[in-house]
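Lecture 7 notes. Example A: sequence first, then its structure tokens.
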Amino acid sequence: MYLPKSKYKKEAAKAEQFADKVTGAPYIGPVIKDFLGRIFKGNSPSKATEELVSTNVDGENTDDLIGFNRFYPKPDPAAYSKGLLDRFFLKDSRTGKIIELSKEDYLKSKKKSKLYTKSIKIIWYITGNPEDEIINGYLYPGTKAKNQDVINQAEKILPGIGKQILKDPSQFVVK
């Protein structure tokens, strides 16, 4: 495999960061990251260069995969008084990883506009009755049902978001 020097960078693998793609054996040593985000053994690309995989199953260090840091929102009193929380997500189509972003990183990702990334902004309901209720014969959906609908709509744009991040439709909800 030949790559010009501008298409890869050299790094050192940390303990338990990468494993051999075929055998699954842990790898420590020099690595090459190419322009597509793939990781290879060695100091320079060649025909004998072997690809590695990240051993990080739960998605930590996704900043290495997508270029942005993982964000965990903490609704403030203003958000609770409004009843809504804006949330931002980014998917790397090369790896299938999805991370939640801060608003600033979301705006940066929109400006960069990479072909292999897709982003979405959702509005998450955080106040109200979590359960559906019937009032005067009419069904009023609770926040869990509303958020589940948000998850279903987000799945159409970022497939996998419901399994990777938005697993709990009652997240941040207070009555």
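Example B, a different protein, same format:
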Amino acid sequence: MRGRTVLFVVLAVVMALGGVYIGWSTSSPKAAADAPATPPSSLGPAQEAGSTRSRSPGAAGPKVSADKGTTDKGTTGKGATVPGGKPAPPPSSKPQPSPGPVRFGQVTTAGRPNDTAVSDDRRVLTTSFEDFEVIDNPASGEPAATKSFSMTLPLTDGAEGETLKVTAQGFVYLGDGATARLTLRGGRRTIIKGFAPGSDEPFVQTLELPATPGRTYQLSVVIEIYKDAAGEGWGSSLNAATLDVVIS
């Protein structure tokens, strides 16, 4: 009986020593190194703690622009936009008036046979007449007469402020009792030059008009001879030899 008691005591001591050894082994540095590592948490301390604080300036996440919804109204270069997201319209491409001088366009004439020449710069025009003349000669049986000549003269675009000068040149000879008249007309302006009985001279008559860019002028020249009942009027004549038109 005593032997069994001693055996139980020995076993108890052995088991106690074994428990102490096992507890020491699991808490030793080597045991800690052999234990499996715990995977690191993907959440930050604030998230693990359930914090609702906002992210720090450097935190990852979608970036929200402070300028969202605004329109740069001062941008006029390439790629500029107007409200609504449409591209800004390009600068006006409307053609501007020519800064150069006014010139003659296509000239047409009607009336007496003539030779019309235009200078290379199309700013000087000369018309020479073959037979633009009226005669009162009782000896030949020719009555007093009226003759006319007309011209259509378009002008091109160009600078404002220039003048269109229309000049008729010729000769007049009138007997006693005969009178004559030259009429120059351009647009709404008309100049009449009268000749008295006994006139025997060359003449120059000029009509000035504004050379309006893009305008078409209708020019005309009329020559006339008249005789009173008592006048002889023999050999009276009036002719226009040339008609010059100059832009200056």
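Note on Example B: DSSP finds three helices and 13 strands in the chain. The helical segments are 2-26, 29-34, 45-48.
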